[in-house]
Amino acid sequence: MADTPIEANSPMLLVLDRVANKWAVLAVSAVCNQPKRFNQLRRELGGISQKMLSQTLKRLERDGIVDRKVIATVPVTVEYSITPLGKTLALTVDQLRIWSEQNIEQILAAQARFDAAAEV
Amino acid sequence: MADTPIEANSPMLLVLDRVANKWAVLAVSAVCNQPKRFNQLRRELGGISQKMLSQTLKRLERDGIVDRKVIATVPVTVEYSITPLGKTLALTVDQLRIWSEQNIEQILAAQARFDAAAEV
DNA sequence: CAGGATCCTTTAAGATACTG
DNA sequence: CAGTATCTTAAAGGATCCTG
Predict the structure, then answer these.
(1) CA B87 vs CA A5, A112, B91, B119: distances in Å
(2) Closest residue by Cα to the C1' atom of nucleotide D2?
(3) Taking CB atoms and an 8 Å cutoff, what residues of chain B touch A7?
(4) I need a surface site. Which of A51, A102, B26, B98 has the fewest CB within 10 A?
């Protein structure tokens, strides 16, 4: 890790602001292996509202993480896919997923200890 | 990345909820190399309010990411340091920092393209 | 020095209804 | 089907004052 403290508007924070939220991670992950349609994603991402999904996808598209392709069927179909840039991000985020899975027990144990110590 | 979509309460999301916010990342990063005191951290993390810092540190402590040590001086001193668990997390988060730095240009370029296309 | 408690403002998020 | 617009509610965040 870096010796220098992270500044308030570093690339890291800019990326975190976009990527480090539940729905963005879910969406990237869902789209990562094959293109998906809007409502298909909605169903796949459990409780997401269409507003949130719409927002999330638009942000990801703007950042060049996912690609949006309108197919002129009737009614219209829209396909979301991962970009090359998005793919590398997904790989990186996946590292965090692996860390999470490997350490979730330790975290939960720490929480339990903390809470036990707290309630006297 | 995983083929299976990330479920709504996976370890990943639990970790993201804690770790993937500006202040937590800043705090972990600030404490990563040597222990720091409360107000020392406050100064180092630019604009953080003491409420936010307090909240952030408490959460990180609860999760076993940082360690809190009260030193009985007068007035009292409190020292925050990284735990072994926190250290491995910092390493992982650092990967994301590296990705961010390497790809920030591409992201900004994508945003510029998107915005240019949007305003007609 | 290191915080807790309170109040108040701003932002995020969900529900609902409507459109090309 | 794939969204946008609007309204309302929930949560995050900041400012201020206070204490061991």
Answers:
(1) 15, 20, 6, 45
(2) A38
(3) 46
(4) A51
The DSSP string of B14-69 is HHHHHHSSHHHHHHHHHHSSS-EEHHHHHHHSTT--HHHHHHHHHHHHHTTSEEEE
Q: Which two tokens stand for residue B44?
A: 């180092």
B79 contacts A39 by C-beta, under 8 angstroms: no
User: Contact B100/A14, CB-based, under 8 Å?
Assistant: yes
Measured CA to CA, the distance from residue B114 to residue B117 in angstroms comes to 5
Q: Which of A75-84, A97-106, B19-28 has the lowest mean pLDDT?
A: B19-28
The structure tokens listed for A32 are 């990562």
Cα separation, B8 vs A110, in Å, equals: 22
The vertex-A32 CA angle with A50 and B11, nearest 5°, equals 80
Mutate which of A17, A83, A96 to test chain B, going by most B C-beta atoms within 10 A? A96
Question: Which nt is closest to the CA of B73, judged by C1'?
Answer: C1
Question: pLDDT tens, B60-89?
Answer: 999 999 999 999 999 999 999 999 999 999
Measuring CA to CA, how many Å separate B96 from each of A86, B9, B47? 13, 22, 23
State the virtual CA torsion across B35, B38, B40, B46 in degrees, nearest 10. 120
| Closest-CA residue to A96 (of B100, B61, B88) | B88
User: For residues B81 and A77, is the Cβ–Cβ distance under 8 A?
Assistant: no
Name the residue among B10, B41, B32, B14 with its Cα closest to residue B97: B32
Model confidence pLDDT, tens digit, residues A55-69: 999 999 999 999 999
